[in-house]
Design goal:
The protein is an alpha/beta fold and about 250 residues long. It is built from 7 helices and 10 strands. The strands form 3 sheets. It has a 5-stranded parallel β-sheet with strand order 3-2-1-8-9, with helices on both faces. A 3-stranded antiparallel β-sheet has the order 7-6-10. The radius of gyration is 19 Å and the shape is globular.
């Protein structure tokens, strides 16, 4: 049985490099291309997709399908056996000391959404292309069976810097970092960028931060466990816990 070549775009630098490789003919075209709309993605991601990536791919006959999370996900913010587990890696002061909850949102909102969408397209066996570069070998996972991961950037021996250079060589602007506006893994710089340059996303994040404490008064988007609009976003106030440097949220 022929294996479907399915590219799961994450919308960031590495994914833009895969698009550039496809458009330039350096790698073959995938059978299917998809990007999941978590419905909380920063607005700049879609502006870049619509202005640069989607038209470029369309010019070589590749459609980048934008799939809404809510069309395929079986859970949203809460899950678990009792349906009360917050699936995001928020910060908590429940124990009296700052801590961090595990995150399941990437699996539920992205990976499983892509798989369910692909099943609807009739995919039986699949090589899923992921935008992981050579400087992220720790993220590579061995897979087998019907669903196998494939890493086009590693096959091309490209690191993140190579990706940025290659995207630039296409005459494309560098993409903004792809992430949800409510992601607790944002650095101080990323929060400031949202606050200063994306006012609608910033207000959405503030509302979201307030709303999660209706259900859990100890849950916060900021690592200081204070309301987001009161948080110290100075660079000196660094995150105490590891954060997402390069789109570790699935792709």
């Amino acid at each position: 049985m022929t294996r479907t070549q399915l590219w799961a775009s994450g919308g960031g630098v590495q994914s833009a490099a895969i698009a550039a490789l496809i458009v330039s003919g350096r790698i073959e075209k995938p059978d299917l291309a998809v990007i999941v709309d978590t419905e909380r993605e920063q607005s700049t991601t879609w502006e870049y997709m619509d202005a640069v990536i989607a038209p470029a791919l369309q010019s070589v006959g590749v459609t980048l399908h934008r799939v809404k999370k809510s069309d395929y996900a079986t859970v949203d913010l809460y899950g678990g056996k009792d349906g009360e587990t917050l699936l995001m890696p928020v910060f908590t002061d429940h124990s009296g000391e700052p801590g961090k909850l595990p995150g399941y949102c990437s699996t539920e909102w992205k990976r499983r959404v892509v798989q369910r969408w692909a099943n609807d397209q009739g995919v039986k066996q699949c090589d899923m292309w992921l935008g992981i570069s050579t400087d992220e070998m720790g993220r590579v996972t061995r897979t087998s069976g019907k669903w196998m991961n494939r890493y086009p950037l590693i096959e091309q021996a490209m690191n993140r810097g190579d990706c940025m250079s290659f995207v630039g060589s296409m005459g494309w602007p560098l993409p903004p970092r792809s992430s949800c506006w409510n992601c607790p893994n944002h650095t101080a710089q990323e929060w400031r960028d949202i606050r200063d340059n994306k006012p609608a996303d910033w207000q959405s994040a503030i509302r979201f931060d307030r709303e999660i404490r209706i259900r859990d008064p100890h849950a916060f988007l900021h690592h200081d466990c204070v309301p987001l609009d009161q948080a110290d976003l100075d660079e000196k106030n660094g995150v105490l816990f590891s954060h997402c440097d390069s789109g570790m949220c699935f792709v």
